[in-house]
Amino acid sequence: MRAFRALLALVIAISPALDAARADVRIKDIAQFEGIRENQLVGYGLVVGLNGTGDTLRNSPFTQKSIEGMLERLGVGNLADEQMRTQNTAAVMVTSMLPPFARRGSTIDVVVSSLGDASSLRGGTLMVTPLSGADGEVYAVAQGPIAVAGYAAQGANASIVEGVPTVARIENGATVENEIDFNLNSLRSFRVALRTPDITTANRVADKINQSLGPRTAQVLDATTIEVMSNDKGATAEMMAAVENLMVQPDSVAKVVIDARSGTIVIGSNVRVDKVAVSQGGLTVIVREDIQVSQPEPITIGGTTVVVPQTEVQAQEAEAHFTILEGDVSLQRLVDGLNAIGVTASQTISILQAIKAAGALHADLEII
Known about the structure:
Elements: H1 2-14, H2 18-21, E1 25-26, H3 27-30, E2 31-33, E3 39-48, H4 61-73, E4 89-98, E5 107-114, E6 125-132, E7 138-145, E8 147-148, E9 151-154, E10 159-162, E11 167-176, E12 189-194, H5 199-213, E13 218-220, E14 225-229, H6 236-244, E15 247-248, E16 255-259, E17 264-267, E18 272-273, E19 276-279, E20 283-294, E21 306-317, E22 322-325, H7 331-341, H8 345-357, E23 361-362, E24 364-367
Parallel strand pairs: 16-24
Antiparallel strand pairs: 1-15, 2-12, 3-4, 3-6, 4-5, 5-11, 6-7, 7-11, 8-11, 9-10, 12-14, 13-14, 16-17, 18-23, 19-22, 20-21
Helix pairs in contact: 1-7
Function: Assembles around the rod to form the L-ring and probably protects the motor/basal body from shearing forces during rotation.
Keywords: Bacterial flagellum, Cell projection, Cilium, Flagellum, Periplasm, Signal
Subunit structure: The basal body constitutes a major portion of the flagellar organelle and consists of four rings (L,P,S, and M) mounted on a central rod.
């Protein structure tokens, strides 16, 4: 209760300056350029060098097939008829993100995840693994020792697991072998895509670009997209750099976000409440069990001990007070009203839901 009131007090202290604090932000912080993005890569490989924590070949036949194929490519010979019993190898899936404009020879990070029943990848080394994109082309090759954050230890009657020892990471573990051709200067126009669609913000972005780079340079296509025409000099990259550093004031819808599991409540500055009276009361029922022992006659003559439970039930109803929230209540007035009632986080959640159900809360109520 004390911590929640401290949080509300902090919101009260901040809320008078919210309008002033809504400073302009860079366009690059609220939007991205369409087409300039990362691409997902995936591959299948083997991790070797495990200390008996790899796949059991009986339960993971694909691991055995992969080992046979790898050894055949290395000139060991046909091992199809041989019975393998190694537990130092694990089949893994390797994933990575290919950043935009990645050049041949640059390195990227990879994530290695166990595919079979290996208990841990600690101490292993990833063998050469091609990484393919959605089009089936190989864009990078991964290999190297892996780093596992979690660990697992097991004894005869107890075990402990910290983190996930079957998922590992290799920093700069893949080398880019194929580039994605993309020439910025060949574009006659480029598009700015807002991360949060909002038609007001889109118009502000377009107006700011037109003020800075000239009239009719940018136009709004929809609530997410603003198209910017390139100049005749072919300096598209310079225009992008100029656009992404322009300052605008983004707009947002009024929203109240509630995390019912932790009791966290976030109220946006645009939230408004119509005139409404709020009261919060509670009924507490206390059940108390007292055990009494009764022994009417001595045990030597056949007396038996009898347990007699005594039950006491009490009902306590908390005193409720009405608080009137005037019309067009701002964030500070709303928090003041909730503070005046002296409610807890869970009670505040119920109050906000009830105000929304009454049609007095003009905001989106999102419960996560």
